[in-house]
Amino acid sequence: MSRADRMRLGGYGAAAACAVYGSMKLAQALGANALADKDPLPPELHERLLARDPLFVTSHWVLAGAAAVGVVVALATVRPWGAAVPRGPLLAITWTLGIFMIARAGGVLGFGFVGDALVLAGVVSVPAEHAAPARDLAWWDLLLWSPFFLFWGACWTTAAVRLGRVSKSGPPVRPGTGHGAANWS
Fold it and tell me: Among 16, 109, 158, 174, which one has the highest count of C-beta atoms within 10 angstroms of its own C-beta?
């Protein structure tokens, strides 16, 4: 597999991760548990999530919709029809999503590898009545959510790097046509 083909995997990987995440959020919006009980939230928010608080149900619908848009955005970085999308906004979106998701996976936003490790090592104090659930959720985040967001963020940043390179070189000229036609496929 050529380097160019590997770089294209970023867009497809981001689209697939969006589809997986969006499917989970859609299932939650429709009433399924779909790993909601493994969401690393503070205890009071976790209880509201599991009680299907209207705010969380609404957020599931919004996130499912955002993930559907994410599939389209990710595919726009690698598919021929994506050449019609303005490069500047597409680059800004892909870089922003990639950096945000990598930061989330690392723990900059409170969750992630660092935050989970601190909870599991006992460095972060958790009220005694929430200690067991906090450790359980930290393990889930450490082994499932943080790696997923790291993968997802790496896919977005790979798509952004590829898109930036394609944008700088300009669309290739299709032989025999005399005009530029992006060879994104």
Answer: 158
Q: Is 112 left (phi over 0), alpha (psi -120 to 50) or beta?
A: left
Percentage of the chain with pLDDT > 70?
Answer: 90
Q: What is the pLDDT of residues 117-166, one digit of tens each?
A: 998 998 988 888 888 888 999 999 999 999 999 999 999 999 999 998 87
Contacts of 113 (CB under 8 A, 6+ apart): 105, 106, 107, 142, 146
Report the chain's terminal Cα–Cα distance, integer Å.
Answer: 15
User: What's the predicted TM-score (pTM) here?
Assistant: 0.85
Torsion on CA atoms 118, 34, 27, 90, rounded to nearest 10: 30
SS3 assignment, position 124: coil
| Whole-angstrom distance, CA of residue 31 vs CA of residue 14 | 26
